[in-house]
Every structure is written in C-alpha cells, then in structure tokens.
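Researcher: We plan to redesign the surface later, but first we want a full-length starting point. Tokens attached.
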C-alpha cells in the first residue's frame, strides 16, 4: 500500500483473536519472524505485541468473549473516537463496543458496516499503531469482502472520506489517492455462512514458500499462490486455529 505510517482514516493495526495464544505465537513467529511480547499486566489479559526489530507490527490476543470468532481484526485510525462513532451510526453502521480506554495507549471501538463487516477504530495516544508497513512480515494491504459493494462504498467514503478507484474487477480504497486496500464482491463461490469481512495481507519475501510454511505449521491454503493481472503474487491462508489472512510478495505493492 502507498501508506507507510498510521494516518487518520487509514489502516493502523491488525490484531488476531485466537483460541490458542501459545500456538498462534509459535505459528506466526515461524511464518513471519515475529518476536512476540506479552503484556504482563493482569488487566491486559494476555495481549501480545508482535515485533520485527523494535517495530510493533501486529497483535495476538486470546478470545475475550464467548461469541468472539477466531479472526484477524483491522483497526482504522481516527482523531476522535466519539465523533467517529457518531459518523458510523449516522451512515448506517453499528457500534457493538466502545469507545473503551486502553491504558494510556488510546481509545478503542468495535464497529460494523451496513453489510456486516466488522472493523475497529483506534484513537491513538501513546500508541499510534504499527511502526512498520509494507516490509516482509508487516501489514501491507487490506481487503473488504462483501456482497453489497455499492452500499459498502457509500458507507466508507462517508465515514472516512476514502477515495475509490472505479473498477468492475477490483475497486481500490485510498486516502487522497494513496491506495491502501481493495474490495472483492462475494459471489456464489463463497459459502452462504461466510459473512462480509476485512482481510489483512502481510508482505512476505516469497509467497509460495509462505504457503508451504503455513501447511507445514498446521494451517491451510485457501487460495493457492497466484499472480493476478496488474497485481502482486498473492495467496490466502488460514492458521491452525482458523483465522484467515493473505500474503503478497513484498516490493510488488499496487
């Protein structure tokens, strides 16, 4: 993506909610070379920051609620969480949680767009978000999968002011034209029970090797490595606990 640091309206963080934190740490450490650091404070509930060098790149956390699915969750940066909540509601979205204070790090909101895709809002204070994008092992693209693309486009452009690159095949989201993600229309190939969702893509040096490493680590390959027209080589993977994520070849940003 063409963003290299958290900016208002842009993706700023990816965090995994998992049913087996210890296993997830091992899997992603082997896959991406992450160095996990678990917050020792009892109130943090096992929240773990994944680092590459000194840079925070993602988080791993246990499931905090019984109904919470195993999944990767994406956060978008906002200047004012309360104002963003009002914008989400006015545009037809839902706010099931927040705003919630997270120590001195910032304020956190769980929201959902009108098509059902869940996402998060983050008003950073001492922690603005990821310290590295687009490098191997870090977040480099985000993708919305939805059955109602027009409704989704209306919502996100209203709430965040995103630009949308017109395309029947693959519209792309941007901030002032700096693209950071795309949108896929879910057709009959997607099982009915799969809801609209956001999918993070992490940069890797070699997509094919990442796919092999995923299966060797107990995960699955949902979409085999492929090179779409005018795009980077990509694959969609699933970790051993069931969380889906994508990978793409670093240096081939759209």
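Model: Full-length starting sequence:
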């Amino acid at each position: 993506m063409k963003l290299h640091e958290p900016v208002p309206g842009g993706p700023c963080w990816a965090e995994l909610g998992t049913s087996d934190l210890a296993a997830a740490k091992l899997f992603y450490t082997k896959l991406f070379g992450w160095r996990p650091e678990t917050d020792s404070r009892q109130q943090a509930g096992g929240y773990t920051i994944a680092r590459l060098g000194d840079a925070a790149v993602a988080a791993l956390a246990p499931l905090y609620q019984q109904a919470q699915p195993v999944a990767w969750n994406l956060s978008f940066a906002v200047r004012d969480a309360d104002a963003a909540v009002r914008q989400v509601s006015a545009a037809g979205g839902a706010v099931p949680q927040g705003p919630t204070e997270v120590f001195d790090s910032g304020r956190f909101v769980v929201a959902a767009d009108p098509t059902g895709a869940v996402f998060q809002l983050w008003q950073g204070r001492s922690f603005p978000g990821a310290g590295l994008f687009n490098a191997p092992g870090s977040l480099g693209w985000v993708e919305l999968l939805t059955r109602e693309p027009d409704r989704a486009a209306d919502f996100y452009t209203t709430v965040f002011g995103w630009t949308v690159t017109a395309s029947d095949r693959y519209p792309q989201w941007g901030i002032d034209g700096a693209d950071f993600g795309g949108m896929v229309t879910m057709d009959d190939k997607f099982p009915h029970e799969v809801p609209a969702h956001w999918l993070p893509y992490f940069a890797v040096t070699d997509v094919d090797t990442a796919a092999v490493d995923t299966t060797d680590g107990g995960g699955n390959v949902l979409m085999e490595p492929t090179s779409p027209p005018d795009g980077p080589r990509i694959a969609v993977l699933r970790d051993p606990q069931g969380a889906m994520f994508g990978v793409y070849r670093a240096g081939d940003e759209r």
